[in-house]
Specification:
Neuraminidase; globular; Jelly Rolls; seven-stranded antiparallel sheet; mainly beta; EC 3.2.1.18; 4 domains; exo-alpha-sialidase
């Protein structure tokens, strides 16, 4: 359809503020797919769906905000191939689909009737495409189609060259040997465990140049490289089980990506395809170039002359549809960025999700950061609007912050506790001073411009060094008055307020707050530094995500929250557990993982640690059925693997430390969750690869308490940072995850995505 053929829309098209816009397009360059206008053709578009820098981009203007969805993970779609596109919108916000799978989401509802600013009276048109993009099959639906419906309505991709025999015909060989990028697809099986062989091979002049094979260790592609050693690409897995599997190998954008059954298994730099050997004269299927046959069969497959998108590969394999909802994203409630997910389910089935609201820039502290939440009363299907739990004074890099929330719940009474780090304006991990910042009673220490010291009493009065009352008072938000006159805020940066009088110490703090009504209301934050921090520590903070309550051991009911701290070096960390045996009223610090540890021949002292190999950074706990606490920790060890430490006394001490050879660590926050109380079935998640940005978010299922890993699934092979998980009331897994600075997104995942392994 050309741009001269607009499609009208009105309130009758979208009788409720929800619906779907779907189409097919073919693009050879950047351009506009369609836009939506309200009124005459001269009006500025309310909604634009386009390709920019070879990736999808959605822009809109709502009555509340300007929306800009930069869907950079779809790079490569101006390839001349036919693609399907869908935009669904409703109370959940907006979801974006490419080639049958969801590729992005936003908090804003982009239904055209809501963009007019007058719900119920809007009407206008959708204008199709620019000169560089062909658009067909534009359809408008009055309801938001589900992810499953969109997948079902998306045609399954058909190869440009089919595998119709054990070898490609000469004319097809001539076609493929011109391709420097594209996709190979095979539907195959071997006849049982330890059966093996070649799935595909290609050669020239009697020499094999390319081979794809399977054995009991996984799938390997080997590519000849002239005088150099062959390039090897290996996806580790157990696909020699006698079942039918789909293998897709995509060569594009400088890398090889392998997918099995629609799930991403490998991303490895080093693009190679048939066109690397211009004299190629043979392509064999189900055997090597010498005729040695696979112990199984390739039933069908083919070659696509363009690199398939992730959605197309998932559709090709009928991979299960996943649905993601944006909970916090750029522009939501006027904030530039949201980061650092925390999520938990209460005993009443309420799901509570927390986040850093980074109002002006996406940076860590120093930065203005509030602590915000959203709650779901129906197991994560719908979400209430955002509530600000802690609002901090200041703005930008000079603003005060609360950062890195960790949620834990006492299942006995339903109390939900948050521990979170606090910094004054202009202060953060790189520049905080040592000390606790409180007296032995936990009362915050204050100082004035002259350096005179004071103490803030629990009732808001300020005491001088002799314990006498002064004319100062400080309210719950840090606002200072002196003899009734406004006199600054204790949390602001030095010199930020001309009325400045008293300030809190320039160190790190951990504060506690709790809720007894499933997160609807919260207690006044209280400082717990006097319980957990020592004077030699610069920084002590909690590891963001979730804590646990012990279920199986003699310490049943104990709360554990992971922490980490710095000593003389602000770049080297030691971690362990914060422990509460009274439901979160009091906390103490257990031994650190680094206590008594020998690394590179030297005893580690958390006060003076300077060895990257010894760093134990952000961490997460899970409890095995036998009561052992497993700690996974982020680290800078040269092994490049997730650190693991075990506690056999409820988090008091740690031993049996090792680095799991099967789990990569790129120095990014890990998370894990037990799938049921007193169970060894658990799921671990982390960003597992530098792309070169942090990405490749992988979930791993263990059936034996994280001793081994039975299965894994890549949730997003591109941008992926921090994450947090909880088990939902219906037994599914709730995953709240980052696309770095774009926002936090919630995905519900049935354990069945791991295949049959979880039933063993």
């Amino acid at each position: 359809m050309a741009a001269s053929n607009p499609i009208s829309w009105s309130q009758r098209t979208f009788p409720s503020p929800e619906g779907t816009i779907a189409c097919r397009f073919r693009a050879h360059a950047d351009g506009r797919i369609f836009d939506a206008i309200n009124g005459s053709a001269d009006d500025a578009p309310l909604l634009i769906c386009a390709i920019e820098h070879d990736a999808l981009r959605v822009r809109a203007t709502t009555p509340r905000q300007h929306v800009d969805l930069d869907i950079e993970d779809t790079t490569g779609i101006a390839d001349g191939a036919m693609h399907t596109f869908a935009l669904t919108f409703g109370e959940f916000g907006t979801r974006v689909y490419l080639d049958g799978s969801q590729c992005f989401s936003g908090t804003a509802n982009l239904c055209p009737t809501t963009l007019t600013g007058t719900e119920g009276s809007g009407q206008g048109a959708i204008r199709l495409a620019g000169p560089s993009i062909d658009v067909t099959d534009m359809r408008l639906h009055a309801t938001p189609l589900t992810s499953e419906s969109i997948a079902a309505l998306t045609p399954r991709p058909a190869p440009d060259i089919d595998f119709a025999a054990a070898q490609l015909a000469p004319r097809d060989v001539r076609r493929v040997r011109t391709l420097r990028s594209g996709t190979i697809f095979m539907h195959f099986r071997v006849r049982g465990p330890r059966q093996y062989g070649t799935l595909l091979a290609a050669g020239e002049r009697g020499e094999e140049r390319l081979a794809v094979s399977i054995d009991d260790n996984g799938i390997t592609m080997t590519a000849a490289d002239g005088l150099y050693e062959p390039s090897t690409y290996h996806a580790r897995g157990a696909w020699d089980d006698g079942r039918w599997h789909d293998l897709s190998i995509r060569s594009a954008r400088g890398a090889i990506d392998m997918y099995v059954d629609g799930w991403h298994e490998l991303h490895q730099a080093g693009q190679v395809f048939f066109g690397d050997w211009p004299q190629l004269d043979e392509v064999a299927i189900g055997q090597n170039t010498e005729g040695v046959r696979l112990m199984g069969e390739v039933r069908n497959g083919g070659v696509f002359t363009t690199p398939l998108t992730d959605g197309a590969i998932r559709r090709l394999s009928d991979a299960p549809a996943l649905t993601t909802t944006a909970l916090f994203d750029k522009g939501y409630h006027g904030s530039v960025s949201y980061r650092i997910p925390s999520i938990i389910r209460t005993p009443h089935g309420v799901v509570v999700a927390g986040a850093d609201q980074r109002t002006a820039i996406a940076n860590d502290a120093p930065n203005h950061i509030n602590f915000v939440m959203r709650r779901s009363l129906d197991g994560g299907r719908t979400w209430l609007d955002m509530q600000t739990v802690i609002a901090n004074p200041g703005e930008g890099v000079d603003g005060a912050c609360t950062i890195d929330s960790c949620l834990v719940c006492d299942e006995r009474n339903g109390r939900l506790t948050v521990l979170i780090d606090r910094f004054a304006g202009g202060i953060g991990l790189p520049n905080n001073t040592p000390g606790t910042g409180v007296d032995r009673h936990g009362r915050p220490c204050l100082y004035d411009r002259a350096g005179t010291r004071y103490v803030l009493a629990d009732d808001g009065t300020v005491l001088d060094g002799g314990g006498e009352r002064t004319g100062y008072r400080v309210d719950a938000h840090g606002n200072v008055t002196h003899e009734g006159r406004a006199s600054g805020n204790i949390y602001l940066k030095e010199g930020a307020d001309p009325d400045e009088s008293l300030l809190i110490e320039r160190t790190s703090f951990v504060i506690e707050l709790h809720s007894d009504d499933d997160g609807e209301t919260w207690s006044t934050p209280r400082n717990i530094n006097h319980m957990i921090k020592e004077d030699w520590m610069h920084f002590l903070g909690v590891s963001p995500g979730n804590g646990i309550q012990l279920q199986s051991s003699e310490h049943r009911g104990r709360l554990l929250v992971p922490f980490y701290c710095t000593g003389a070096s602000l770049k080297h960390y030691s971690g362990g557990a914060l422990i509460s045996d009274d439901g979160g009223d009091t906390w103490r610090r257990g031994s650190m993982i680094n206590d008594g540890r020998i690394v590179n021949g030297t005893a580690v002292d958390p006060k003076t640690i300077r060895d990257d190999d010894a760093t134990t950074h952000e961490s997460v706990f899970v409890e095995r059925a036998d009561g052992t606490v497993v700690c996974f920790f982020r680290n800078q060890n040269h092994a490049g693997r997730i650190g693991v430490a075990l506690s056999h006394d409820g988090g008091e001490t740690w031993d049996d430390l090792y680095f799991d050879k099967n789990v990569p660590d790129i120095f990014c926050q890990p998370n894990a969750v037990a799938c049921a109380p007193r169970s060894d079935t658990m799921v671990f998640a982390n960003a597992s690869q530098m792309l070169p940005y942090r990405g490749n978010g992988v979930l791993r299922l263990s059936l034996d308490g994280a001793r081994t890993w039975a299965a894994h699934r890549c949730i997003n092979p591109y941008h992926y940072g921090y994450q947090c998980m909880t088990m939902l009331p219906d037994g599914e897994l709730g995953l709240l995850w980052e696309r770095e600075t774009a926002g936090l997104y919630f995905t519900t995942l049935p354990l069945s995505i791991f295949g049959a392994a979880e039933t063993h």
